Amino acid sequence: MEANPDPRPTPIGRTVLVVEDEIGLGRLITRVLGEEGYEPRLESRGDVALETALADPPALVLLDVALPALNGLEVCARLRQGGFIAPILMLTARDALADRVAGLDAGADDYLVKPFAFEELLARMRALLRRHAQEPERLTIADLVIETGTRRAWRGGRELSLSALEFRLLEVLVRHSGWVLTRQQLLNHAWGYDVAPASNVVDTYVHYLRRKIGDTRGSSLIHTVRSVGYTVRGS
Ligand code: CA
Asked: pTM, whole model, 2 decimals?
């Protein structure tokens, strides 16, 4: 059977993570977003929202600043550290300049002060999504497709579940397909900092990655090049 030419069954750009601990307001926002054709999900705790957004990245995050467990600024900063690239719109009760600056410093794209008009919220969301909506870059090798902007990947039309680090490693390999990359090159590209060259962390992650992408003896994409490193080839 042919691989699904478009492995993405539904248009991206409609999933919104709403992080709001005022439950009434959170429910109101999700209801309005649902009526506007978005697919909202509500979380009330900062720490849970952080995990959720990294595990299953939405197209946009609406993020309250004052939250239990982990405040919105922390959530925002940690999302960016974790490689989260979708737009983040911060919501705050205070119009203090210091708060706005802190939010933008933490990696937010925009800021809205409560109470806000829903028309304005929706307009700002549309603007952020438009700005972010350049056609996502897709890299394909054999039956593997990766979408760099959304950090999603498919093999044979089936979506893969990869951690942020596994995705970066796969992306580096696919971008350089046909080239042999040394362990040190992979460390530099995917980890982005100096790790002791003797460390076998690359081998460990390549092993995870092979399992996740379903490499088998007969149909493997990641090939070991003895005493050098790894390469990705379609055949
Ligand atoms: Ca709050």
From this structure: 0.55
pLDDT tens profile 63-94: 999 999 899 999 998 998 887 888 999 998 77
Distance 158 CA to ligand 1 centre (A): 38
Same domain, 147 and 220: yes
Q: Reduce the DSSP state of residue 53 to 3 states and report it.
A: helix
Span from the CA of 120 to the centroid of ligand 1 (angstroms): 19
Å from CA of 20 to ligand 1 middle: 6
Beta strand 181-182 with 229-232 is antiparallel
Residues 153 and 113 in one domain: no
Q: Using the 8-state DSSP alphabet, how is residue 150 labeled?
A: T
How many Å lie between the centroid of ligand 1 and the Cα of residue 99?
A: 14
Residue among 73, 60, 67 nearest 30 (CA): 60
C-alpha of residue 21 to centroid of ligand 1, in Å: 5
How many structural domains does the chain have?
Answer: 2
Are 27 and 128 within one domain?
Answer: yes
Residue 84 Cα, ligand 1 centroid: separation in angstroms? 22
Is residue 189 domain-shared with residue 105, that is, in the same domain? no
Q: Are 28 and 118 contained in the same domain?
A: yes
